[in-house]
Design goal:
It is a single chain. The protein is an all-alpha fold and about 475 residues long. The chain has one domain: Orthogonal Bundle (Ammonium transporter fold), CATH 1.10.3430.10. The chain is about 65% helix and about 0% strand. The protein has a two-stranded antiparallel sheet. It starts with about 25 loop residues before the first helix and ends in a 15-residue tail after the last helix.
């Protein structure tokens, strides 16, 4: 039988959904990992944000995450994926183009991988979506939702794509920097951009800033659980294969996270004499973030050390430095995203350059220049390459930081010329009902706008056909 169908990619025949180059194990795992990363955002961060804020901001906070997820996907397939991973336009950005045609999506993703390009498109979308949602954590409780609707596509287009292209695509840092799964591209960028946007949007209502208790700690833990377990796909999917690097990355992810949580919790107990649930969640997040840039290229003993540092250094910047620094006090970072993501992401990137195992680097980066971490460089007598790697990590962090500060500022300034970045003061006092006409909990007297008259609540209502004419009911 003749299967000469030139319109179909790479030997895909009309009755054959599995071309010869496809590895079903790799394909199945990548789709699973992509779904796990998506679940971190929807419902993970939706639940976490909706529960971690004051009750009057629960709907708005959760809805910001839901909207961002949907908007990011449309931007991604229409132009942003190709800007991040397509052909060169300038040294820091690819040419915008759609990623929706059959010939492109069903073709093989690179000669060294055994899965279709569509897997990578969706996996990287989940990364882009969670980045902008993490950024939103700095803006909860006061940003005008209509301004947020403009901010999401603009930031994905002008900021996220540049970080992804320069480090993971064909940009100038691709062949030298270590960023296994997004310590810089995702976490450093979201933390810095969130802090910058928080400056431009302005602070919450003064009462909210002083008193902002979570409205549901149990649900908050549920959202945190989605985040933690979803990180299995976050770091496990980066090799684009179900291989040994994948397995090591998954173990290292959970070891570092557990260590970080315990260290943060211990510091809370020693200093404040309370075992804070919110503190434990923050320690969990910093552990997840810190291990991300090195999950598959460091040894497990290094993952434990990274957990110790990620549970202590961000704790110090958030719980001590933040309270004493006038610089941090000027900017209202609602959920402390700068500390949990920017500080932890930078820490993870530098520690990855410090602890990277040359054998693991060769397995994950077989065609680029990442040779050894600084510690192994000293041990193996390759001090030069180890020192160079630390230099590349610093340069990468500096570039991501400066780009996000500048571009996020320009986006906020531009949007402010179109619409208010911050809600009106009167609306800030009300919260969800002013923003969306809805409230999170419709309890009696706390969600009912027009309760029945008191006499109808105190006594049974008499049907009209039983009433006496002229009687006052």
């Amino acid at each position: 039988m003749d299967y000469n169908y030139p319109g179909l990619p790479n030997g895909l025949m009309p009755d054959e959904a599995s071309p010869v180059w496809l590895n079903k194990g790799d394909n199945g795992w990548e789709l699973t990992a992509s779904a796990m990363v998506g679940l971190q955002s929807i419902p993970g961060l939706v639940i976490l944000y909706g529960s971690m804020v004051k009750k009057k901001w629960a709907v708005n906070s959760a809805f910001m995450a839901l909207y961002a997820f949907a908007a990011a996907l449309i931007c991604w397939v229409l132009w942003a994926y190709r800007m991040s991973f397509g052909s060169d336009m300038i040294p820091i950005l690819g040419k915008p183009n759609q990623a929706m045609t059959e010939g492109f999506l069903l073709s093989r993703y690179g000669p060294e991988y055994y899965l279709p390009t569509v897997d990578y498109v969706f996996y990287q979308f989940a990364f882009a979506a969670i980045t902008i949602i993490l950024l939103a954590g700095s803006l909860l409780g006061r940003m005008n939702f209509y301004a947020w609707m403009l901010f999401v596509p603009m930031w994905i287009t002008l900021s996220y794509t540049v970080g992804a292209y320069t480090i993971w695509g064909s940009g100038f840092m691709r062949k030298n920097i270590i960023d296994y799964a997004g310590g810089y591209v995702i976490h450093l960028s979201s933390g810095v951009a969130g802090f910058t946007a928080a400056y431009w949007v302005g602070p919450r209502h003064s009462h909210d800033r002083q008193h902002f208790p979570p409205n549901n700690i149990i649900n908050m833990l549920g959202g945190a659980g989605f985040l933690w377990m979803g990180w299995t796909g976050f770091n496990g999917g980066s090799p684009l294969a179900a291989n040994t690097i994948t397995s090591l990355a998954v173990l290292n992810t959970h070891v570092c996270t557990a260590t970080s949580l315990l260290v943060w919790l211990s510091l809370d107990m020693v200093v404040y004499f309370k075992s804070s649930v919110i503190g434990a969640v923050q320690g969990m997040i910093t552990g997840l973030v810190c291990i991300t840039p090195g999950a598959g290229i460091v040894d497990t003993w290094a993952a434990i050390l990274m957990g110790i540092l990620s549970g202590s250094i961000p704790w110090f910047t958030m719980m001590v430095l933040h309270k004493k620094s006038s610089f941090f006090q000027k900017v209202d970072d609602t959920l402390g995203v700068f500390h949990t993501h920017a500080v932890a992401g930078l820490l993870g990137g530098l520690l990855s350059g410090l602890f990277a195992n040359p054998k693991l680097l060769k397995m994950f980066y077989p065609t680029t220049n990442q040779v050894t971490g600084f510690i192994y460089g000293i041990i193996k007598g390759d001090f030069y390459h180890g020192l160079c790697q630390m230099g590349y990590q610093l340069v990468g962090a500096l570039f991501i930081t400066v780009w996000n500060v500048v571009v996020t500022s320009l986006i906020c300034i531009l949007i402010s010329r179109i619409i208010q970045l911050r809600m009106d003061e009167d609306d800030l006092e009300i919260g969800d009902d002013a923003a969306h006409g809805e409230e999170a909990y419709a309890l009696w007297g706390d969600g009912e706008r027009d309760p029945p008259p008191l006499r109808f609540r105190m006594t049974p209502r008499i049907p009209s056909f039983c009433r006496r004419p002229g009687a006052d009911y």
